[in-house]
Specification:
There is one protein chain. By secondary structure, the protein is mainly α. The chain has two domains: 9-193, Up-down Bundle (Growth Hormone, Chain: A); 217-403, Growth Hormone, Chain: A (Up-down Bundle), CATH 1.20.1250. Helices cover 80% and strands 0% of the residues. The protein has 16 helices and no strands. The protein has helices at 9-28, 32-39, 44-72, 74-95, 99-127, 132-160, 162-187, 214-218, 221-238, 240-251, 257-272, 274-283, 288-309, 312-341, 345-374, 376-401. Helix 1 (9-28) runs parallel beside helix 6 (132-160). The longest helix is centred in the C-terminal third of the chain and has 30 residues, at 312-341.
Length: 414
């Protein structure tokens, strides 16, 4: 691809490794419910419990991963968590659905998988400080290409064996760990991970001296609080697809593949609509905070379309609008925190990610309960209200951060 020619080899290698890892991750997660319900013959309530435990582990992993970035060092944290995640996945065929062991292992896997996320995002922000916003977006696109590839393969592998999907996911996680081990070992001792001009340089393999305490960091609400609430509401609202649109399509007699096609549209748009994304950023959302706010506008519009049309063409239009919102917000959050928080960026990325994960936990239950009692329309209206709360949170965040004294580069929100 021509656009990759402008990046150095290490960036291209990182993109390739990230794509493979995201492809492996997407092999398992769409199949978790099917595995519990189909392979193990348990109830949908039990399947929901497994998803809940994964999500709870993810919340803890995000929070701890951000807090331990400087204490353990980037190499130990990223490589260690990825290796532990791989070992957890490799253990699933041996557990073979034994329920008392499966539940804690799913919690463990969700935890280990999420520990590395804030560390990787912070590492990118430190390592490529001069182009971090651009690279967050490129890596986001690469990850989604990997997800599209993995999702396409997941059904094939599941037809052969669910356990094969788990092993394949473990192999990609282990491979990603080895990539980081080699990569961080190579740059350790010769280059600094952090490139913030007024911060001490920190080696890739060494933890930095203790900085402000947790309570002192949490006191700086300008950086994370309303951003985190916006992310929480955003993920809450996204549950409308799985606990509103999905059962509605089935109840209308449509094939299950109709729901898969909606997410195929999502994956394709993330790749081919990048020029439109660039235009939106240039004309309407020049700053990271403006991009978050605009994303919430798109999400609100998407859910209003579901309320008004609640038909398959309406779902397609809603997916297009929602994808544009996703393309704006996903790279903007880590880019904003990396710009503003300096050495504390891993901590704040973990906190914001953990708050977002809370939305993933409570959204499916709340919307599923509402769907059982009223169907799609009440669920869609709830999604509209929640998206409106996300919009309000991002607006408040932009206001608070406009004169943020903690800004590391003077880039103020619009």
């Amino acid at each position: 691809m021509k656009f990759l020619q402008q990046y150095p080899k290490e960036v291209k290698g990182f993109l390739a490794a990230s794509l493979v890892n995201s492809a492996g991750g997407s092999l398992m997660w769409p199949l978790t419910t099917m595995y519990v319900f189909d392979e193990l013959g348990r109830s949908m309530q039990d399947a929901g419990l497994v998803i809940l435990l994964q999500s709870l582990g993810g919340i803890g992993g995000q929070l701890l991963g951000g807090a331990l970035y400087h204490r353990l060092g980037v190499k130990k944290l990223i490589v260690g968590s990825l290796v532990l995640n791989a070992l957890g996945l490799f253990s699933l065929p041996f557990i073979n659905g034994f329920w008392p062991l499966l539940l804690p292992m799913m919690l463990f896997i969700g935890f280990c998988n999420s520990v590395s996320l804030p560390a990787i995002q912070a590492f990118i922000g430190f390592r490529f400080a001069d182009r971090r916003g651009e690279l967050f977006n490129v890596i986001y696109v690469a990850n989604n290409l990997g997800i599209a590839l993995g999702t396409a393969l997941s059904g094939v592998l599941a037809e052969i064996s669910y356990h094969l999907s788990f092993v394949a996911n473990g192999l990609t996680s282990f491979g990603f760990a080895m990539f980081f081990l080699v990569y961080l070992t190579r740059i350790s001792g010769s280059e600094a991970v952090e490139q913030e001009g007024h911060h001490p340089k920190v080696k890739a393999s060494a933890p930095s001296p203790d900085g402000p305490g947790v309570w002192a960091l949490l006191g700086n609400i300008r950086i994370y609080l309303f951003l985190g609430f916006g992310s929480l509401f955003m993920w809450f609202g996204l549950s409308v697809w799985h606990t509103g649109v999905s059962p509605f399509l089935i109840s209308e007699g449509m094939p299950k593949t109709a729901f898969s096609y909606l997410w195929t549209i999502n994956g394709i748009l993330i790749f081919i609509a990048q020029p439109l994304n660039t235009v939106i950023k240039r004309w309407f959302a020049r700053t990271d905070t403006a991009q978050m706010t605009m994303s919430a506008v798109f999400y609100t519009a998407a859910y209003l379309v579901i309320v008004v049309l609640h038909s398959y063409p309406g779902f397609v239009l809603a997916m297009v609008l929602g994808t544009l919102g996703e393309m704006l917000v996903s790279p903007a959050i880590p880019a904003y925190i990396a710009d503003r928080a300096g050495k504390s960026a891993p901590f704040y990325i973990g906190v914001a990610g953990g708050m977002g994960s809370v939305g993933r936990v409570i959204g499916p239950y709340a919307m599923g309960t509402l769907y059982d009692s009223g169907g799609l329309i009440p669920v869609a209206w709830l999604a509209v209200a929640i998206a409106g709360m996300s919009l309000l949170s991002f607006i408040l965040h932009a206001r608070l951060s406009k004169n943020d004294p903690y800004s590391t580069n003077g880039r103020m929100a619009a």
